[in-house]
Write a structure and sequence with these properties.
By secondary structure, the protein is α/β, with parallel strands linked by helices. The protein has three domains: 89 residues, Ubiquitin-like (UB roll), CATH 3.10.20.740; 79 residues, Alpha-Beta Plaits (2-Layer Sandwich); 357 residues, Rossmann fold, CATH 3.40.50.1780. It is 35% helix and 14% strand. It has 19 helices and 19 strands. It has a five-stranded mixed beta sheet with strand order 2-1-5-3-4, sandwiched between helices. A four-stranded parallel beta sheet has the order 11-10-13-16, sandwiched between helices. Strand 10, helix 7 and strand 11 form a beta-alpha-beta unit. Helix 8 packs across helix 10 and helix 8 packs across helix 14. The longest helix is centred in the middle third of the chain and has 22 residues. The termini are far apart. The relative contact order is 0.12. The model has no long low-confidence stretch (mean pLDDT 96). The protein binds 2 iron/2 sulfur/5 carbonyl/2 water inorganic cluster and iron/sulfur cluster (2 copies). The site of one iron/sulfur cluster has 14 residues, from helix 4 and helix 5. Keywords: 2Fe-2S, 4Fe-4S, Iron, Iron-sulfur, Membrane, Metal-binding, NAD, Oxidoreductase, Repeat, Translocase.
Length: 571
């Protein structure tokens, strides 16, 4: 332990603690713009300066030392912080009233806290074009404050290296190499950079307008589906605590927005378990193309296509749950309802911006129609609800529509890392052994550890699974498999750390809150609660899945399934 004095108070902290963290222990919140817990810590913005002796030092990189005397609230400190923020603001495209991050902007918040009223240094401004060519992520460099949080996320957490600092001095900017558009780089569209950005310099490509147009077009039958993770985060946009379950209110809101049918992507997840489980058993029997790797995360799929093309054949050929459901809405459901599929518009509400890219992939279509027409993030849905003036918090709980509204606990846990594996094991075990799985909560695959492992015995044969979330972890797993250090039969990867609950389309939690709350844990808790509250918790017991096979698909991996529910990859 080390003992130091902050603003006259004695503080004892473990060695290695920064002054910023030590100050928090005595209730002092030092402002910062570049610091992001576990990700970015290099003192770039200098908003967090404190006085130590005659010097002003950045507290986010300053290690607490024995006998150190720190002052966080002197005239000199306040002046310095103000000057730093004023300089940032002087070269910032300040369009606060129309900015996508209005009211959720860390720069806005710090400026307000520091009582900045007028800018003393208004001067030259850099001019940069907006890059909106990517299907998922829009970059607005004139709003960038060069904190480096997105770069650290893309490089260290995801090991994708799509963006970096370019040029020097006043002209410094964050950009893909050679000033390319993000659309023409290795970017895998996870949107984790958006989650890291304190301002409006990075955001999702919005599709709200297109969806409003479809809803107001009387010729169109607009069908919406919602991903597992949306229901445990949407409430945050309306002031509810992190990890609040709002499934029923979400359904009610979607009806009030004017969607003709409200379906649940969890149904697609159940179906994925049937298709992917069967695929796994077939590959195990034949001993080929193992380990089988999950394919529901478009960020991960693109990562494999780009960085591990030799392993694309290990990817499951299953489309993602939302794409499967989209394909069925335009075939099975359209037939049942007697609607021309050309007049159906399918909208997916996802915690993800990568799904926008996925939705546009050519191969995810049938008879010339895309399976999913528009993807909206959780944030965009919240925006539409606000625009419509719906009092979300006081909505009644409503139920999804059928046939794609009935889903199981296995479907909902897809939203947290480890969930696909747990759901798959619940079903595969029972199908192979013919016995009932007693302990269906498979805790070995839960939690936020970067790489998890699990084994299950199926009629005397041990099947080994690995689970990774965050692509740096996925890369480690693949390297271990390639070197022969590890052997697995099944690998689940979600590109986003924590899985979809903390996907790039979810409500953005600021850096300060992220220091105190592990958002992944809180939202995952809600996911598992949701599972516990559902009457059916295994995908193969979903009555509508069973009926779908009887009426339409035949059996898992049938010819029809392959035609509608499976895909192929780019090498
Ligand atoms: Fe996901 Fe999935 S779990 S990929 O993370 O397999 O987006 O929630 O909808 O499709 O079901 C996302 C979440 C989601 C799909 C499912
Ligand atoms: Fe990197 Fe993901 Fe952002 Fe693309 S979306 S730049 S891969 S963090
Ligand atoms: Fe999208 Fe989920 Fe993959 Fe993140 S982990 S990119 S939210 S599918």
């Amino acid at each position: 332990l080390v003992k130091l004095t902050i603003d006259g108070f004695e503080v004892e902290v473990p060695k290695g603690t920064t002054v910023l963290e030590a100050a928090r222990k005595i209730g002092i919140e030092i402002p910062t713009l570049c610091y992001l817990k576990d990700v970015n810590k290099f003192g770039a913005c200098r908003v967090c300066v404190v006085e130590v002796g005659p010097r002003l030092l950045a507290s986010c990189t300053l290690e607490a030392e024995n006998g150190m005397v720190v002052k966080t609230n002197t005239q000199k400190v306040r002046e310095a912080r103000k000057a730093v923020v004023e300089l940032i603001l002087s070269n910032h495209k300040r369009e606060c009233t129309t900015c996508i991050r209005s009211e959720n902007c860390e720069l806005q918040k710090v400026s307000k806290e520091l009582n900045i009223r007028d800018l003393r240094f208004e001067g030259e401004k850099t001019h940069e074009d907006i890059d909106s060519a990517s299907a998922s992520v829009v970059r607005d460099p004139e709003k960038c404050i060069l904190c480096g949080r997105c770069i650290a996320t893309c490089s260290e957490v995801q090991t994708v290296y799509a963006i970096n600092f370019a040029r020097r001095g006043f002209k410094t900017k964050v950009s893909p190499a050679f000033n390319k558009s993000l659309a023409d780089t290795v970017c895998i569209n996870c949107g984790q950079c958006i989650m890291a950005c304190p301002v409006g310099a990075l955001h999702e490509k919005e599709n709200i307008k297109e969806v409003w147009m479809a809803i107001s077009n009387p010729e169109k039958f607009v069908v919406v589906q919602t991903a597992p993770a949306v229901r445990v985060a949407l409430g945050e946009e309306f002031g509810m605590p992190i990890g609040t379950r709002v499934t029923g209110k979400m359904v009610a809101a979607l009806r009030r927005l004017g969607f003709d049918k409200v379906f649940d992507t969890d149904f697609g997840a159940d179906l994925t378990i049937m298709e992917e489980g069967t695929e796994l058993l077939n590959r195990l029997n034949k001993g080929e193309r193992l380990p089988l790797m999950t394919s529901c995360c478009p960020g991960w799929v693109k990562f494999v296509e780009h960085y591990y093309p030799e392993m694309t054949e290990n990817l499951s050929t299953c489309k993602s749950p939302s794409e499967m459901e989209g394909a069925l809405i335009k075939t099975y459901f359209a037939e049942k309802m007697g609607i021309d599929p050309k007049n159906i518009v399918t909208v997916s509400i996802m915690p993800c911006v990568g799904k926008k890219f996925e939705g546009q992939r050519e191969e995810l279509s049938h008879n010339g129609l895309q399976d999913v027409d528009y993807v909206l993030t959780t944030r965009e849905l919240a925006q539409m609800i606000k625009e419509a003036g719906i009092d979300f918090v006081n909505l009644p709980d409503e139920e999804f529509d059928n046939p794609f509204g009935e889903s199981t606990g296995a479907g909902v846990i897809f939203g947290a890392t480890g969930g696909v594996t747990e759901a798959a094991l619940r079903t595969i075990y029972e199908i192979v052994t013919g016995k009932e799985l007693e302990n269906i909560e498979i805790t070995a695959v839960r939690g936020v550890e970067g790489i998890k492992e699990a084994e299950i015995e199926l009629n005397g044969k041990v099947v080994k699974a690995a689970i990774a979330h965050g692509l740096a972890n996925a890369r480690r797993v693949l390297e271990m498999v390639k070197s022969g250090e590890k052997h697995y039969d099944f690998i689940e990867v979600m590109a986003c750390p924590g899985g979809c609950v903390t996907g790039g389309g979810q409500p953005i939690v600021d850096a300060k809150t992220r220091e105190r709350v592990d958002v992944r844990v809180e939202r995952a808790k809600a996911i598992y609660e949701e599972d516990r509250h559902l009457p059916i918790r295994k995908s193969h017991k979903n009555p509508y899945v069973i009926r779908l096979y009887e009426e339409f698909l035949g059996e898992p991996n049938s010819h029809k399934s392959h035609e509608l529910l499976h895909t192929h990859y780019v090498k």
